[in-house]
Protein: WD repeat domain 31
Amino acid sequence: FKNNFCLIKVTKLCQPQNYLWIGEKADNTFDSQVLQYEPAHHGSINTVTNLSPDLCVSGGSDQAVVLYDWKQGRMGQSFQGHNREVTKVICYPGSTWIFSASRDKTVLMWDLNQGDEPIQEFCGHELVVNGLAISPDGRKLSTGSRDNWMCLWDIESAKCEQRHNISRNLVTHICWVPASSSIVQTSEDKTIRVWDSRTWQVSNTFPAKQYIQTYCDVSPNGNYLVSSSNGFGGQGCEATLWDLRQPGCKVVEYRGHLQTTACCVFLPVSPGSPAQVATSSHDSSVRIWDQNTAACLGTLSLDGAGPLVSLAPSDPPNLLCASFNCGLHQIQVEQSSHQAQGSGASPGGAGNLDIRVVARF
Ligand SMILES: *[C@@H]1O[C@H](CO)[C@@H](O)[C@H](O)[C@H]1NC(C)=O
Structure:
């Protein structure tokens, strides 16, 4: 019954975009060509990540962790084990491991080659787990929760080896700095903290921003951090680029979203293009920014899709985007061939991008 209800809701909200808005909204005229695959989830999707160039893993309010071959448009395994909504999923690159965090206060570990039961359970947090990151060597799992605790677990034994609580540190997201022992963590207390995983102490605290920090990502070379913040009416909805080599040094701000920016990611560098950052927001849009100049290179509005809280960059030009109302989206970001009609790009901006939805599932 619940599933039927949700399917009807999805249909209502998402199909008009395919048919009705042509002509009404000039920037989304390609929407009639969106492929519709079997929906990965019933209900809102909170998180999506890549397992391989073809496969993604996602989680949401239906408590399931779902594997999807989005290049073929085929649903794979569905992992059931959480009894509250799934907040984050991550994969360990090059492996068949999946980790999922949930409002049920646990983290479960799954292996694609070992059936559909969890192979490990990490229990100890007292509230929703929002932060999840694996050490570069694949041996440790770092978790953070709304309960103010940051924990470091041994993956093989599922033992919590280090833990530390900081008053009012309601963890919203965690990122392991590539090839290092540092972890970056955002919080509802508006602070960004850098942890040393060897001592399990905070090694740097970035100056508090005015708004809750919702998400963070670290550039592949480990030099830059991007964090995003909540807000409304255009206030506080920015993402910020920081220099990790000079902690606390703000480089640029990406301003344009009208509501909470819920996700921010570095895009893989493609030849001939400037370094880029992508953001998604509760305002139902995805924006692509020039990483260094902070110019908005393109905007995609997914009207009716509700909050967009997770992005997973794949091989260019593909980008996956999770939504509350309309499932997952395969998006393509390409250099515009017709500069003058760039879809929603900033006025006069050079190198306007075409951003379009290819498939929805
Ligand atoms: C940390 O946790 C302990 C045990 O639950 C508690 O007594 C203490 O007040 C907490 N400290 C902070 C800073 O939250």
